[in-house]
Amino acid sequence: MFFKAALRTSTALALCVSATAAFAESHAPTITIATVNNGDMIRMQGYTDQFTEETGINVEWVTLEENVLRQRVTTDITTNGGQFDIMTIGMYETPIWGANGWLVPLDGLSEEYNVDDLLPAMRAGLSHDGTLYAAPFYGESSMIMYRTDLMDAAGLEMPEAPTWQFIREAAAAMDDPENGVNGVCLRGKPGWGEGGAFITVTGNSFGARWFDEDWNAQFDQPEWAEALNFYVSLMNDYGPDGYENNGFTENLNLFNQGLCGMWIDATVAASFVTNPEDSTVADSVGFALAPNSEGVDRRANWLWAWALAIPAGTQQEDAAMQFIEWATSTDYIELVAENEGWANVPPGARTSLYENPNYQDVPFAQMTLDSILAADPTNPTVDPVPYVGIQFVAIPEFAGIATEVSQEFAAAYAGQISVEEALENAQAITNEAMEAAGYR
Questions:
Q1: What's the whole-model pTM score?
Q2: Are 145 and 256 in contact (CB under 8 A)?
Q3: Domains annotated on the chain, with CATH
């Protein structure tokens, strides 16, 4: 009799525990994160289970191509759609959206998180009026990645700070169509943050600018004609077929397959092109500063951070804040280093990373830092401008204008229109939009 009673009690207790666990699981918070399909963000998703184990917070991912991500999160934030609890955004959106009250201020981060450890350029670019609105997962500039074996075979030596004129000479020497090797691979894909970003910094490096001090478009000026003609000539002669469709991901794949002599793009790519698991040329990659045109005191480098932000109105603010603190912390950096090596940790966000002797041994660490420090968003062009931003202009209208302009340029890359027509169209598109917005 006693045994049966004890058994019933034990069974009831087990059922109670099971029911409690099921209830807790069903009521565990779930956050939905929109992110870009870059390698570091994909890597982060692989560690999400550890975050869930530590916190009990479930995570759902929406992973999108760069242009699509920008469209989706912009639509969601401007319509108060509420699809996402965390958005992956950058230095263009963050100050504008923060000023509009669309983002949750990140003033609830813990003392252990150490906000002061964020690189000043990254923290400033993700703030508005001194308030941080997004935490950098990684930061980047742009630099040259090149095949040292092909450079040696060509009898050339890459300068630490080369010119565009040298890049053309080297591209000609390394171009090998019979073996499918392109002298240089560069972005042409439409989108303000894709090919639009690259041609903007290329323009900067030839002395061009988007606007004069009165917000007049400058595509009718000789500096833009020189920059765009140079770019189209370089890519038509030594770039891959269909380069007007290539962005970061497409060129990364080409480079890793050994099909590019040089690639000028985001510094964050360095960990992928030097990883033997990703790259067939990992043991023969060198790095240099982004180029300038001879006699022009500006380089084709940008400043960017892919960062995590919380849209105002989310129902999961506390859980979202916990995830951001976890994913952008020094503990996360050490987690990746322990499992995948220091070369694969998210770069460009924290001062302490570049003070770490383990990371200082990474072959691209110093060039990445030098490139970031060389970028000045407050002084991006040779002639004065009324805007802040290097590869973008920090005004709300820019994304729409630059996307249209990048489509015109891509049409020129594809040979559908001439360079002159593309610049005429860009001038008209930009001035019309700025007049409609009340800048002129």
A1: 0.88
A2: no
A3: 24-140+304-360 (3.40.190.10), 142-301+383-436 (3.40.190.10)
